């Protein structure tokens, strides 16, 4: 039997009869229900809401086209993780007997992530062709193993990992940083189709982030010290072992792949997305500071992080 | 406490405490996101374009006002509450299937994208069912005790069990069970004479038709490449899900025995109000027809022989 915070389990994630009754499906968590309502209202359609005719690959050099194909394909792989991995959290909401508002919202969040993957792959396709993988696939060092995913599913499916820890790593760190970077990136993007894509993605991502913060604001204050420690550990790991190892951007790796770094710079300078250290590091370090400040009142003290090349954040 | 030390074996443990169930391991790249099943891609496009929002698109006040008899209102609230439980359980069904198909190597992206939208469709139908129950008085959070085993179907466990082919799961749940589900809703639509109920049930039927079309489109793609073992697994799964359906999982009209006499009577009473509930006999007849049609469609892949026997038994039982 394993103690998880204030709850006790003697079962794994599938050792639960489903659904559990009483099943109160009316509003239980008003803040999350509000996000659900807003998501329904703000649904968009990749086919009709993006000016695809304005991608205009021919306006760019072959080198930029190739770099853009790689970058946008990489974006699709990253967004795909939210289709492949984070739906597993639905099962945790049941196991942990959490508010059904979470499940309702999460379904729309999953669909939104699918659309983010879809538009990214489509942009790559229009730039000359979506790529199923790069010669040097992106890797991340987590727990001593090289993997090419955030491993959200593994955490979600492990009943010994508090759901708060999974949400802390996935949403409060990974999604918050992505949102902050994307928001800044909109100002740098000049391609109209790419700009509209990032506007729509940011409009979704702000709700994804607020979901995490609202969940934590409600559930973390009453959580055990062990749960809070697990949240902290996962959040720290997500910054040190995922972000700072170059999962999202190659120049953050201790040993960056210079060809990939140069390729992303080409994309950035062409106004098609991409990233450079001088653009993004200030945004990233500010984002980490924001996360640290916002989680502190909930009882999680995050350290100042030190990157081997770019300094503290 | 574990923080999810993320070794390559983690996904294979902790699903259940005796460790008998494994979900498999994902190999993310290479990642094919191209269209490979155009019919499913069109269903995904349709789903994204459907902006139905039950909270704003149905006149709930008018729906509630359409029934004044307290007994009929209570019966209608009971039927719509039952629908809410079942439809809400369709969320983990979708999401577990999505997790599973993404773990499988190089499976069709169209199916993944559609499943990502299906969860949202289920959420909307569950939400709508709760609102309908409330319109008639009050959503009920618990079923009668006798109903609990019928409603607890372990669907996530089935979807995530790597020993069972995902094809078997998808065909059994999305094509076969889905066809019975649709039959029940089509019967309900014929008895949605109140305008607000018609708007509500029409929208639900549109979602259900997409979901069933997905199941059969998927079956069409994988049906010809099934091996004998998978075919046998599918037939076993088909029997399981059909027996669950016939026990009344989705509709009290399908129950039998004294333990369910009260809920059957409530379903029959609700059918008199024109609010999207069909008489019991009509639900049974629709399901019987759907079952026979399902068995006929499955024959193309040498599947579904047990369903034909069940359909014949139902026929002879009248």
Describe the structure.
The complex is a heterodimer of chains A (313) and B (318). Chain A has one domain: Ferritin (Up-down Bundle). In chain A, α1 packs parallel to α5 and α7 runs parallel beside α9. Chain A contains eleven helices and six strands. With 313 residues, chain A is mainly alpha-helical. The two termini of chain A are 39 Å apart. In chain A, β1 and β2 form a beta hairpin. In chain A, 58% of the residues lie in helices and 5% in strands. Chain B has one domain: Ribonucleotide Reductase, subunit A (Orthogonal Bundle). In chain B, 65% of the residues lie in helices and 0% in strands. The radius of gyration of chain B is 20 Å and the shape is globular. The N terminus of chain B is likely disordered.
Task: Outline the fold blueprint.
The complex is a heterodimer of chains A (313) and B (318).
Chain A: E1 2-4, E2 7-9, H1 30-41, H2 46-49, H3 62-84, H4 89-95, H5 100-126, E3 140-142, E4 145-147, H6 152-157, H7 163-186, H8 192-219, H9 225-242, H10 258-269, H11 277-295, E5 306-307, E6 311-312
Helix pairs in contact in A: 1-5, 1-8, 3-5, 3-10, 4-5, 5-8, 7-8, 7-9, 7-11
Chain B: H1 38-49, H2 54-57, H3 60-65, H4 70-103, H5 109-135, H6 148-151, H7 155-160, H8 166-190, H9 195-222, H10 228-246, H11 261-270, H12 280-299, H13 305-317
Helix pairs in contact in B: 1-5, 1-9, 4-5, 4-11, 5-9, 8-9, 8-10, 8-12, 12-13
């Amino acid at each position: 039997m394993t103690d998880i915070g204030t709850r006790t389990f003697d079962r794994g994630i599938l050792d639960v009869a489903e659904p559990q009754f009483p099943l109160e499906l009316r509003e239980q968590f008003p803040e999350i229900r509000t996000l659900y309502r807003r998501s329904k209202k703000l649904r968009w359609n990749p086919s009709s809401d993006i000016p695809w005719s304005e991608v205009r690959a021919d306006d760019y050099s072959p080198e930029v086209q190739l770099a853009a194909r790689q970058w946008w394909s990489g974006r699709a792989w990253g967004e795909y993780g939210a289709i492949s991995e984070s739906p597993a959290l639905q099962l945790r909401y049941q196991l942990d007997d959490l508010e059904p508002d979470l499940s309702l919202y999460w379904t729309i969040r999953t669909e939104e992530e699918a659309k983010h993957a879809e538009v990214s792959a489509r942009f790559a396709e229009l730039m000359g062709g979506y790529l199923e993988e790069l010669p040097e696939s992106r890797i991340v060092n987590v727990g001593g193993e090289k993997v090419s995913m955030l491993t959200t599913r593994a955490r979600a499916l492990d009943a010994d990992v508090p759901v708060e820890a999974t949400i802390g790593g996935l949403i409060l760190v990974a999604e918050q940083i992505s949102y902050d970077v994307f928001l800044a990136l909109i100002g740098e993007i000049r391609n109209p189709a790419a700009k509209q894509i990032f506007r729509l993605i940011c409009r979704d991502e702000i709700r994804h982030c607020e979901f995490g913060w609202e969940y934590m604001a409600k559930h973390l204050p009453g959580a055990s010290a062990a749960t809070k420690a697990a949240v902290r550990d996962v959040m720290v790991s997500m910054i040190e072992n995922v972000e700072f190892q170059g999962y999202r951007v190659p120049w953050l790796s201790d040993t960056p792949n210079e060809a990939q770094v140069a390729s992303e710079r080409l994309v950035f300078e062409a106004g098609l997305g991409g990233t450079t250290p001088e653009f993004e590091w200030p945004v990233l370090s500010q984002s980490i500071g924001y996360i640290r400040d916002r989680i502190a009142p909930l009882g999680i003290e995050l350290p100042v992080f030190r990157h081997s090349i770019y300094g503290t954040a | 406490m574990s923080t999810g030390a993320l070794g390559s074996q983690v996904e294979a443990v902790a699903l259940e405490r005796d460790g008998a169930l494994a979900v498999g391991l994902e190999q993310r790249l290479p990642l094919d996101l191209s269209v490979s099943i155009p019919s499913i891609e069109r269903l995904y496009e349709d789903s994204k374009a459907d902006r139905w929002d039950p909270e704003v698109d149905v006149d709930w006040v008018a729906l509630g006002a359409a029934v004044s008899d307290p007994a009929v209102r209570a019966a209608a609230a009971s039927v719509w509450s039952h629908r809410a439980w079942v439809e809400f359980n369709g969320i983990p069904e979708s999401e577990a299937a999505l997790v599973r198909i993404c773990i499988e190597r190089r499976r069709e992206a169209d199916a993944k994208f559609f499943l990502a939208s299906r969860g949202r469709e289920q959420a909307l139908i569950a939400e709508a069912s709760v609102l309908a129950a409330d319109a008639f008085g009050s959503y009920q959070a618990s079923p009668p005790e006798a109903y609990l085993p019928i409603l607890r179907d372990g669907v996530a466990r089935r979807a995530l069990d790597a020993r069972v082919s995902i094809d078997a799961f998808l065909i059994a749940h999305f094509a076969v069970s889905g066809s019975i589900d649709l039959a029940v809703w089509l019967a309900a639509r014929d008895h949605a004479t109140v305008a607000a109920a018609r708007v509500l049930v029409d929208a639900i039927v549109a979602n259900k038709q997409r979901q069933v079309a997905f199941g059969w489109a998927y079956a069409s793609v994988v049906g010809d490449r099934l091996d004998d073992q998978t075919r046998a697994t599918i037939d076993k799964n088909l029997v399981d899900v059909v027996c669950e359906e016939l026990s009344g999982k989705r509709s009290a009209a399908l129950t039998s025995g004294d333990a369910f006499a009260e809920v059957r009577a409530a379903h029959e009473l609700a059918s008199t109000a024109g609010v999207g509930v069909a008489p019991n006999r009509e639900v049974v007849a629709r399901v019987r027809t759907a079952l026979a049609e399902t068995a006929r469609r499955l024959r193309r892949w040498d599947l579904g022989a047990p369903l034909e026997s069940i359909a014949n038994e139902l026929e002879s039982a009248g």
